[in-house]
Amino acid sequence: MVRLCRYVTARMEVVIVKIISRDSWGAKPNKTKFSKLGEVKGLVVHWSAYPVAIGNQAEIDQCKKIQRLHQEDRGWNDVAYNFLVGDTGQIYEGRGFGNRSAAQGGNSRQEINYNNKHYVAVCWLGGSKPEDQPSAEARAAISWLYEQVGGELRPHSSFKQTDCPGDAWRQWIIEKKTATIDELKKATNITAEDLSNASGPEMVHPHFIQKKLDIIIAKLENIENKLKLGRIIQ
Ligand SMILES: [Zn+2]
Q1: Beta strands 119-124 and 42-47: pairing type?
Q2: How far does Cα 98 stand from its chain's mean position?
């Protein structure tokens, strides 16, 4: 069953999305209370390193398998990730927004604490082979999550020596960075026409001036939104 989740994101916006809630995918409860995230600095992409889950049931089974691994074999509080995403494009709630993950790792205890306190973790349900490719739906779901989280977009391998999340995701992050820079360039391109002083009676007409202002305000809002997304780290 899909339950609509209401979240207040890091940017204090309320969003309602089709995220499969913990109850809906049959997650076990967390053993102890979650620690809260600190100031959010971005989203980190992981892979599960299991064979790619095909279809909703296989995705749910894999979420459960990862939770078992983390809670039973590793003795952790809960599944390490804030969210898990399958090739169907479905997002499964792990620790959710606002709670600290246990996925990021680092080269020292201090680094690990910092990385988990400040970064949201999402895990793609695949990656047993280096050549595994995430679906367009999985990419779109992670894009959406990134828009909610803001800040930096990073692969796990940017924190420590690891293959996670694989070359396909690393390449995707690089491409996303290029696209964001291009969009930013386009957004900042206020043309001479936008600002021109047309001659004739329409130039002093309030509607004409309002229209020009609307165009410029829309462009500025677009720039502001792009800047909110911030840096993408490869
Ligand atoms: Zn990872």
Answers
A1: parallel
A2: 13
CA distance 60 to 66: 10
Distance 44 CA to ligand 1 centre (A): 8
Q: Two tokens at 85?
A: 């995403």
Provide the whole-model pTM: 0.77
First to last CA, the chain: 36
pLDDT in tens, 48-93: 999 999 999 999 999 999 999 999 999 999 999 999 999 999 999 9
Distance (Å) from CA 18 to ligand 1 centroid: 24
Which pLDDT score is estimated for 18? 73
CA of 84 to the centre of ligand 1 (A): 12
Beta-carbon neighbour count of residue 96 at 10 Å? 15
Calculate helix-pair angle for 206-229, 167-187, nearest 10 degrees. Answer: 150
Confidence class for position 19, pLDDT limits 50, 70, 90: confident
Residue 75 Ramachandran class (φ > 0 left, ψ -120 to 50 alpha, else beta): left
- The pLDDT assigned to 55 comes to 95
DSSP β-ladder status, 83-85 and 91-93: antiparallel
Query: Pick the residue with more confidence: 107 or 226?
Result: 107
Ligand 1 centroid vs 168 CA: distance in angstroms? 14
User: What stretches of 41-134 show up as alpha helix (H) in DSSP?
Assistant: 56-68, 109-118
Question: Which residues touch 2 (CB under 8 Å, ≥6 apart)?
Answer: 18, 20, 24
* CB 59 within 8 Å of CB 86: yes
In angstroms, what is the span from residue 121 Cα to ligand 1's centroid?
A: 9
| Alpha carbon of 217 to ligand 1 centroid (Å) | 40
